[in-house]
Design a protein that fits this description.
Chain C: This is High-affinity branched-chain amino acid transport system permease protein LivH. The structure holds three protein chains of three kinds. Chain B is an alpha/beta fold. Chain B is 36% helix and 26% strand. In chain C, helix 2 runs parallel beside helix 4. The interface between A and B is small, with 6 and 7 residues. The structure holds adenosine-5'-triphosphate (ATP) and magnesium ion (MG).
Chain lengths: 325, 234, 285
């Protein structure tokens, strides 16, 4: 690779790390602060990406879009759509234990993926949506990277403010001791729903930025693997409950993931076709190793005892019963 | 030496200590009752004796053996059985299955023990195929006690066995507790119906804020003016 | 009408497969209190284990019990090396661990067996016909096999000491511990049972269509839907849940493209979560 190629590679690596950082911050609000188990990140990411893609892409004969609208409108709608989706999911699942949320979110993400693939009139199916413009004249890769960093920093600052606010404290209190918070007269479901919706809109925003960065999207990018699993590994590795950790984890794991792509390039030819599987297997093993050896992540949450490092051996494991039972 | 001997126990649920140095003994031939205001740590003391608490200081022995840091599943085999106040049956299982689970550790034939339990609680005999979760509170309490007796324990820990029962069932439960004790099973019982409980008690402990307040025979506690005024509601 | 009956047949076949998966998910949830996201991939593992045995020249039905043993052992090993350690911290961590396990297992299977579709037996089976309704011998085998397995599970849960201990622990862990029921042994047997049932589900799925590394993941959502419909943690409810979901999925193809079958399962599940999160059946536990 020449120098300029290397530079270009570095910029694209950082840009994607930044987008994953935004996703990871969104998940941190849901899981890290509130203990909500969203494994449908891909769904919110996709809704965001397709919303802005359909609205801002150049007009096409093969599907309803593009409407050639300004990119800020597209991004705004991306945020609104992912928010609406999360309100619906949240409304159904907030009163139940988090396993149901997990199942519901993965279900929605799968259905969205099916819709993207099969509703050609709306999404152009597997051919994907091309010609998505760059926002605000951020045409050069470097300019776009700077734009992403600005968004990342803004989201980070907002999340830090949320964490330190009374609202953030209630969320953590709910995570640690639901009954205690209920006794204090707080409406737990409302707080949970708010956290879930805000986190999901951040994911939708990340999806929108992703679409504008690549200028082209297709359903493949929204497989649960890329958009959901990697984000989870990022947050857990970086440190759930810690916003800096969320970003650090996103950057590190994205480097590992991209690096593994380079490394599998050296595999013997007959293995090349399987390179994807090798990489997934490695990251899956990495996740288990982190969970077993450093569940608090690289940068643990700064609040005394975190959720995962609080041993309660004699009392037995904490048990939450679905509210419906 | 007593069967159960608790000395200066300190412990809690991970955070602050709830028990702040409690002493207590119980023997096979007696009924021991613990009373005290809400939140005094009565249930916590029973849980401590059954290995469900983090013990930070003090010792407990059972039958001369140190049990301070044993877990519930290690204690049942040694002859302690525990009936929690709530969630004390397997609701989706029948009465018979509940009793069988009580006998889980037994390898021998326990049909005689089961017969005896059905004699003690005739209502259960009639309903042995019924799901425990669908029974009345009083019947569930019988299932819970019956289950705890299947291992022929030396000591039975009961947490408010009469809570929420109708007066008729309350009297009956105290009679049953006496009958169980007559067969050589020590009883250590927390009770809110303190006056009635002290009538059948050999000894009683008054607990406040995780400490021993007054310890005496059942009769003396009933006669004690302070106990009578403050803890028995005048 | 003919369409309807034919689809009903397919629905019962699919329902049998879902039932076997859902019983396992329900048992695991009852004992360990977490939704096991790798269950679909355990099914895939079972199917491919059977394929490995079949490739040695044995018939599928002989391969099935061998594959069950292999899968059960692997499930227990996964539990003992990973889940068991995480159980001690917080059960919710098991969700993410099992999600990672799902992807890991799938990748491993793809590495070993390749990314392509495979079949247990080549060639076409002569179907039975009743009027215009077509039933393949494999369909009868799947439904019959599921019935036998459900009966075995029922006998196990209601008549053996370990089976009753499982129900007890699922009802009330603390009380089970107070009875001296050995939690870790019960957990192990839960994985053995769930692993065997998942193997059967995977093998039947492979017989009904083809084997593919993503086959289990693709059916995970309907399996969860069946579990929730039957009442999560209630293995008997899983039978009804599996049948309802299986039949609904197949019948939906009369009005919708078949690709949306999982969406139908999901829609029923969501309706259930709104209307009655504890499952179809009333009553305690
Ligand atoms: N599982 C638990 N975790 C943390 N704290 C607990 C737990 N159970 C009880 N406590 C606390 O321990 C203290 C003593 O509770 P305990 O249940 O022993 O009281 P008690 O004397 O049995 O009262 P009651 O008459 O209401 O049953 C209370 O302050 C209570 O809030
Ligand atoms: Mg109490």
């Amino acid at each position: 690779m020449e120098l300029s190629g290397l530079l270009f590679y570095g910029i694209s690596l950082l840009t994607l790390a930044g987008i994953y950082g935004i996703l990871s911050l969104g998940l941190n609000l849901q899981w890290g602060f509130t203990g909500q188990f969203n494994i449908g990140i891909a769904g919110f990411f996709a809704i965001g990406a397709y919303s802005t893609a359909i609205l801002t892409a150049a007009p096409s004969n093969s599907f309803v879009g593009g409407f050639d609208l300004p990119t800020p409108v597209g991004l705004l709608v991306a945020v609104i759509m992912s928010g609406l989706l999360s309100v619906v999911i949240g409304w159904v699942t907030m009163r139940l234990r988090t396993d149901y949320l997990a199942i519901a979110t993965i279900g929605i993400a799968e259905i969205i993926r099916l819709l993207l693939k099969n509703e050609d009139w709306l999404t152009n199916g597997v051919r994907g949506i091309p010609a998505i413009p760059k926002p605000l004249g951020l045409d050069s890769p470097l300019a776009f990277l700077i734009g992403i960093i600005v968004v990342l920093v803004v989201v980070y600052l907002l999340m830090e403010a949320a964490r330190k606010s009374p609202w953030g404290r209630v969320l953590r209190a709910i995570r640690e001791n639901e009954n205690g918070v209920m006794a204090a007269g707080k409406n737990i479901q409302r707080f949970r729903l708010e956290a879930f919706v805000v986190g999901s809109t951040v994911m939708g925003l990340a999806g929108g930025l992703y679409a504008h960065y690549f200028g082209f999207i297709s359903p493949e990018a929204f497989e649960p693997l890329f958009a959901t699993f990697l984000v989870w590994v990022m947050l857990i590795a970086g440190g759930s409950g810690n916003n800096k950790g969320a970003i650090l984890g996103a950057v590190l794991i994205w480097f590992v993931w991209s690096g593994s792509e380079l490394a599998t390039g050296y595999l013997p030819a007959e293995w090349q076709a399987q390179a994807g599987a090798v990489r997934v297997l490695l990251v899956a093993i990495l996740l288990q190793v982190i969970l077993l050896t450093r569940p608090q992540g690289l940068l643990p949450e700064d609040m005394g005892a975190g959720r995962t490092s609080d041993p309660t051996p004699k009392e037995g494991r904490p048990r939450k019963v679905p509210a419906g039972e | 030496m007593s069967l159960l001997d608790i000395k200066q126990i300190h412990g809690g649920y991970g955070g602050m200590n709830i028990l702040n140095g409690v002493d207590l003994t119980a023997d096979r031939d007696e009924i021991v009752v613990i009373i005290g205001p809400n939140g005094a740590g009565k249930s916590t003391l029973l849980k401590a004796a059954f290995g469900m608490l983090k013990i930070n200081d003090g010792t407990m022995t059972f039958d001369g053996e140190d049990i301070t840091h044993l877990r519930p599943d290690q204690l049942v085999g040694k002859g302690i059985s525990y009936v929690p106040q709530e969630r004390n049956v397997f609701p989706s299982m029948t009465v018979l299955e509940n009793l069988e689970m009580g006998a889980y550790l037994r390898k021998d034939d326990y049909s005689r023990q089961m017969e005896w339990i059905f004699e003690l609680f005739p209502r259960l005999a009639e309903r042995r195929k019924q799901q425990a979760g669908l029974m009345s509170g009083g019947e569930r309490q019988m299932v819970a006690m019956g289950r705890a007796l299947m291992l022929e324990p030396k000591l039975l820990l009961l947490d408010e066995p009469t809570a929420g029962l109708s007066p008729l069932f309350i009297d009956q439960t105290f009679e049953q507790v006496k009958a169980i004790n007559k067969t050589g099973v020590g009883i250590l019982m927390v009770e809110q119906n303190a006056r009635q409980a002290l009538h059948i008690a050999d000894r009683g402990y008054v607990l406040t804020t995780g400490r021993n307040r007054i310890t005496d025979t059942g009769a003396n506690l009933l006669a004690n003016e302070e106990v009578s005024e403050v803890f028995l509601g005048g | 009408m003919i369409d309807f009956l034919q689809l009903l047949v397919y629905g019962v076949v699919l329902g049998s497969i879902l039932t076997l998966g859902a019983i396992g998910v329900s048992l695991i949830f009852g004992i360990l209190r977490f939704a096991h996201f790798a269950h679909g991939d355990i099914m895939t593992l079972g199917a491919f284990s059977a394929l490995a045995v079949v490739s040695l020249g044995l018939p599928v039905l002989v391969a099935l019990p061998i594959a069950m043993a292999i899968t059960a052992v692997i499930a227990v090993v996964i539990d003992q090396t990973i889940y068991r350690r995480l159980r001690r911290t917080a059960p919710v961590i098991l969700l993410i661990s099992s999600f990672g396990m799902a992807l890991g297992l799938r990748s491993l299977i793809q590495l070993i067996f390749g990314p392509n579709n495979q079949v247990f037996a080549k060639g076409i089976q002569m179907p039975y016909r009743w009027g215009d309704i077509v039933v393949k011998p494999d369909h009868l085998l799947i439904v019959g096999g599921a019935i036998v397995l459900v009966l075995v599970v029922h006998m196990f849960l209601s008549h053996t000491k370990m089976g009753k201990a499982m129900r007890a622990m699922s009802d009330n862990v603390d009380l089970a511990a107070a009875c001296g029921i050995p939690a870790e042994r019960v957990v192990m047997w839960t994985w053995i049972l769930a692993g065997c049932l998942a193997t059967a589900a995977g093998v039947f799925l492979g017989m009904d269509a083809q084997l593919h590394p993503v086959m289990g993941w693709n059916i995970l959502l309907p399996v969860f839907a069946a579990t929730i419909l039957g009442g999560i943690g209630k293995p008997y409810g899983a039978i009804a849940g599996g049948m309802v979901i299986g039949i609904a999925m197949e019948l939906s193809t009369m009005v919708m493209p078949p690709v949306y079958k999982p969406a139908v399962a999901f829609a029923i599940m969501v309706a259930m979560l709104i209307w009655r999160p504890q499952g179809i059946f009333k009553g305690q536990a």
